[in-house]
């Protein structure tokens, strides 16, 4: 341990810590902008400046290592003036239209300007002109708001290992974007939205579908059905100041009903359906010596585009199952439409997703039939929160309500789909009982839980050992697939989710400031909300869902039947990095 003083307070911190990390141990707040825990520390923005006794000039706390006996000051008149000056310089080349900005109220630059009393723009000068890039189906980039902090670049390159964006030119001319000034739509971007979550300001946001959804709700000729993904209940409360890590399932259903949707179903139902289809597909492949193994899950559209673009040789390994919300969209426009005598062409399906890549996925031509898409519009959790606020609904005070029958019924296995390892655990609960014919007493597979980048387990199915692995983030998927390709690792079944932590940390989730990310393990806390809900459910295995049994009895016959294949399965296409 290294001993130092910060603002006169004695602090001990592990050797190798930075001043920022040591200050955190003493609950001393040093402001940051370009710093993002576990993603980037480059000392570029000069907001975390501190004074170190005996040193020349000010030091950037996020990169300066601590040393024995060091004396640090974080809050002097000089430091406050320098930080304010640096903010004013950032604002000199910034589109300051806060009132119409998607991040107003949740913008790290805006918050710092308020904290440091920035009231004027003394350095107003030439501003760079930019065209908003809104050609991607998922992501909008408005560089007039960009402060060149590079947090998006770091997450795309270091965590996701995609490299769709970078910095070009230098100094005042620096531009963050794709190579040769291309649009994100014309790049290897997989639409994961992790760059949005990393961005401290309003330079990146999702392609909004709010107006389309309001128009559908207000159209008397449309029957508008909504379905929220498992991970939405874990986070929607955060948008209304509620505690992180507490699922708001009942208030979510109530708020959707009050927005005016005709039916409020639950993607968790389709998660259970996915397990029936995917589990059966896995058992079929395990029993066929010519089948492609390991089988790899297909729920995450960011992961699917990554596989199609960077690892097309693994396309035969992808489960042919559509993702759960696409399955439910297909079921709504077939089974539900037939049962209720509704013309499927008049049904408008809205998915509320933790994910920006779902917007790209919903538009894939193979995910629909008879001229209809399975899903008509995708809202992120952030967009849903904006709609709830626009409607004047007091979310935190809503009474709890249930989802509508029968496509709103789910088990605990469906709920945990939203966390890394959840799809694998749900599948194992069902596959175990189907293969062994025995009751699985302890349904919790802790080996596949948690936020470690790659998790492995072996499961004994009455003498047949199944080797499984779980990867979250495309960067971890890359490491896993490289090991499989090199013959270093061998598995039967792999779960991949494109975002770090899985859907609870998807690119459409509420944005957590860099400061809060220093103190909270967002992925673990949000996942706990889902595991708690699972633990409280009477039914925790997908094949026990009575509504899933009913739909097989009445409509599909059995998992992987011809009809199930027609509606619930899909195909994939190899892609070039630059089309
Ligand atoms: S990015 Fe922040 S400071 Fe800039 S306009 Fe938006 S809210 Fe205001
Ligand atoms: S959406 Fe994902 S892949 Fe695309 S630029 Fe952002 S981080 Fe990179
Ligand atoms: S887009 Fe956002 S995260 Fe990326 S460099 Fe600009 S301000 Fe930083």
In total, the number of strands is 19
Molecules bound to protein = iron/sulfur cluster
Question: What is the arithmetic mean of pLDDT?
Answer: 96
Strand proportion: 5-15%
Helices and strands, with pairings:
Blueprint: E1 2-6, E2 9-13, H1 19-25, E3 49-52, E4 59-60, E5 71-73, H2 77-92, H3 108-115, E6 139-141, H4 151-159, E7 166-168, E8 175-177, H5 194-198, E9 204-206, H6 210-217, E10 223-228, H7 232-235, H8 249-259, E11 263-264, H9 267-286, E12 295-296, H10 301-310, H11 324-339, E13 347-353, H12 357-362, E14 368-369, E15 372-373, E16 377-380, H13 381-390, H14 412-415, H15 422-436, E17 454-461, E18 464-472, H16 474-485, E19 493-497, H17 514-519, H18 522-535, H19 546-556, H20 562-568
Parallel strand pairs: 1-5, 10-11, 10-13, 12-19, 13-16, 18-19
Antiparallel strand pairs: 1-2, 3-4, 3-5, 6-9, 7-8, 14-15, 17-18
Helix pairs in contact: 9-11, 9-15
The structure holds iron/sulfur cluster (3 copies).
Structure description:
There is one protein chain. This protein is of the alpha/beta class and 579 residues long. It has helices at 19-25, 77-92, 108-115, 151-159, 194-198, 210-217, 232-235, 249-259, 267-286, 301-310, 324-339, 357-362, 381-390, 412-415, 422-436, 474-485, 514-519, 522-535, 546-556, 562-568, and strands at 2-6, 9-13, 49-52, 59-60, 71-73, 139-141, 166-168, 175-177, 204-206, 223-228, 263-264, 295-296, 347-353, 368-369, 372-373, 377-380, 454-461, 464-472, 493-497. It has a 5-stranded mixed sheet with strand order 2-1-5-3-4, with helices on both faces. A 4-stranded parallel sheet has the order 11-10-13-16, sandwiched between helices. A 4-stranded mixed sheet has the order 12-19-18-17. Helix 9 (267-286) packs across helix 15 (422-436). The chain is globular. The mean pLDDT is 96. The site of one iron/sulfur cluster has 13 residues, from helix 4.
